[in-house]
Amino acid sequence: MTGVPCMLMRGGTSKGAYFLAGDLPADPCERDELLLRVMGTPDPRQIDGIGGAHPLTSKVAIVSPPAAPGADVDYLFLQLGVEEAVVSDRQNCGNLLAGVGPFAVERGLVAAGPRETSLRIRMVNSQSLATATFPTPGGVVGYEGGTAISGVPGTAAPIMLDFADTAGSACGALLPTGRVRDVVDGVPVTCVDNGMPVVVAPASAFGLTGYEGVAELAADDALRDRVQSLRLKAGALMGLGDVTGASVPKTTLVAPPRDGGAISTRTFIPLKVHASIGVFGAVTVATALLMDGAVGHDLAELPAGGGPLAIEHPTGRLEVLVELDGTDVRRASLVRTARKLFDGTVHPRPGGLR
Ligand SMILES: O=C(O)/C=C(\CC(=O)C(=O)O)C(=O)O
């Protein structure tokens, strides 16, 4: 194989390579090996590939016609390592999800509506459904618009994402330990999965304010070790087994809001500090905030009468609406943007990983 049709897109605050499943090897091992060569993994700079040398820019979306009724397209997300030759399908990515609808229209997998298009997307990683609604003026994807999202310069067309069945995406239950609060390594935590397995812990338990900058947190090796120890134990409690090399669970340190939002967050994915927060990460943290007794509930400023929660993060805020009925999730929704960066043929580095 010399070249593979590929579209590079920004999806929300991430960037990834989008492929039609039919353009990639059917065998998952062959496919993953090819994708590592496409991204330039393993290499801290990914200099011989199209990866951006960070987990948020070392991502792949694979889109295909639906394998079962109930969806318009299927979307498999793969997280590729940067320094390590690993490919993981153990988590969703709600940021790349934003680009899936536009990509499916661009590739002719689905017909666009005359003004906007609504697609049901099966997130194969968790077998859950998302509905994406985005502008398609004149039957073509409109990327331009007036919607700003924190962490991305400028504005673009809004992409509405709605979720109905994301609880227990990777762990099988919203509260995978069976409790709303646990104590791990002496730290009170809430282990929760509403689209992303997350360990929510108070920043104060780590001697932090929770408002530190990304560079400061990233330079703190002792903190990194404590986060790893916490997530290893919490991951086992959540039924995820040995998560040493896994991309989940994430850890989010929470503190009272200070910019008019619901909560302040600093998130580790799983050990690198996130410049903002993932989509499902934010949905999951917002879900915890709404539960009596959960870590974060007592620190949060919740809007009287419900409504969207603004999750503050190092580069702004992400607003998510989560509707709970006790510990049953009714729905979640939020807005993202996406942009086509290039469409062409990617030429992977020739075979052999090392
Ligand atoms: O947590 C991560 O690895 C980062 C993500 C994943 C994501 O989007 C999500 O949580 O839905 C991101 O910011 O893209």
From TrEMBL:
EC number(s) reported in the record: 5.3.2.8
Keywords annotated in UniProt: Isomerase
InterPro entries linked to this entry: OMA_tautomer-like (IPR047687), PrpF-like (IPR007400)
Residue intervals passing through the bilayer: none
Tree of life domain: Bacteria
Family listed: Belongs to the PrpF family.
PANTHER family for this protein: ACONITATE ISOMERASE-RELATED, ISOMERASE YBHH-RELATED
Name recorded for this polypeptide: 4-oxalomesaconate tautomerase
Organism: Sphaerisporangium corydalis
